[in-house]
């Protein structure tokens, strides 16, 4: 072994792999090392299909959706380049918007949907890919469609006129304003966003009940529908709740707030719409997903523990409503940006901290989370 001497200190220095190979201290195979000074085994040196062409040699890259965000990003970029799209028009005051405004609105729509996808993809990954992207998209579309039906009008009147939350929000009393925001915006919107989740939960319970009392192909069909398209546990509720919140945000922002900002702007209409989308849309999208995802946790908990449904569903509804109402009450009561922005930051961080806590707890009590993790890990190792 070579010695390295500095002054009075003598320390042992390990010879490098090249020195050992030069003096014959290594076996012929040991002389072939990689740049990290590792000795490859014989099997590592064999060239195979999955070494030369990793995408063709294994299915894990596609099956585990690692490429999905990149793919969606490329599609969004190509769609932005293809604007304007014929037959896709913004209606303002019963008339088609001018071409420039219409093109800007198409840009806003693509960006809004893309941002919603990224947030839902991230939440689904945190939940261990609890639900398929197709089911998430269907829930978002269902929420968007429900907002165009008379059902939303009746629901809105129930909370804003009959309670009446709208009059409370216009009160000069701060406590009345907070109450109006909690009972109107909070309970009203969060309850409406839970409609697709409650429907899926009821279908899941009914199909599971029937599958246990039937046999053969019918039982397998009912069980398969409940397993692949149902809401069976808190993780499912979180993911599908976030998807429902995204559908609500897309409709509210792209159909209501952005066109309104463009219509009211005297100059730079497209720019005003973009400011509205980014300034309001980004915080609102994340907030809507957090509120409805948290409520979804309680709905899934009720499916998992039916005996607790009478307690956990109202509790989850109230928690989501209070956070949502606090967000809106801050906008209604605080005029100063220096004060309002920090409060919104605190509410937003708190909402996602509570959502993260719900995700971690849901993973602990999930009947399927551990099995999915083992399945994904086995597929990765096999690839």
Q: Can you walk me through this structure?
A:
The chain is mainly alpha-helical and 383 residues long. It has 2 domains: 1-33, no CATH class; 64-347, no CATH class. It is 73% helix and 3% strand. It has helices spanning 17-22, 49-52, 54-57, 60-63, 68-82, 99-126, 133-146, 150-162, 165-169, 174-193, 195-211, 216-229, 234-264, 269-304, 309-333, 337-365, 369-382, and strands spanning 3-6, 9-12, 91-92, 95-96. Strands 1-2 form a two-stranded antiparallel sheet. A two-stranded antiparallel sheet has the order 3-4. Strand 1 and strand 2 (9-12) form a beta hairpin. The model is unreliable at 6-11 (pLDDT under 50).
Number of domains: 2
What's the total helix number? 17
Number of E-type strands: 4
Strand content: under 5%
Taking the sheet with the most strands, its summary is: 2 strands, antiparallel
Write a concise synopsis of the structure shown.
With about 375 residues, this protein is mostly helical. The chain is about 75% helix and about 5% strand. The chain folds into two domains: about 35 residues, no CATH class; about 280 residues, no CATH class.
Ordered list of secondary-structure elements with their pairings:
Blueprint: E1 3-6, E2 9-12, H1 17-22, H2 49-52, H3 54-57, H4 60-63, H5 68-82, E3 91-92, E4 95-96, H6 99-126, H7 133-146, H8 150-162, H9 165-169, H10 174-193, H11 195-211, H12 216-229, H13 234-264, H14 269-304, H15 309-333, H16 337-365, H17 369-382
Antiparallel strand pairs: 1-2, 3-4
Helix pairs in contact: 5-6, 6-13, 6-14, 7-13, 8-10, 10-15, 11-12, 11-14, 13-14, 14-15, 14-16, 15-16
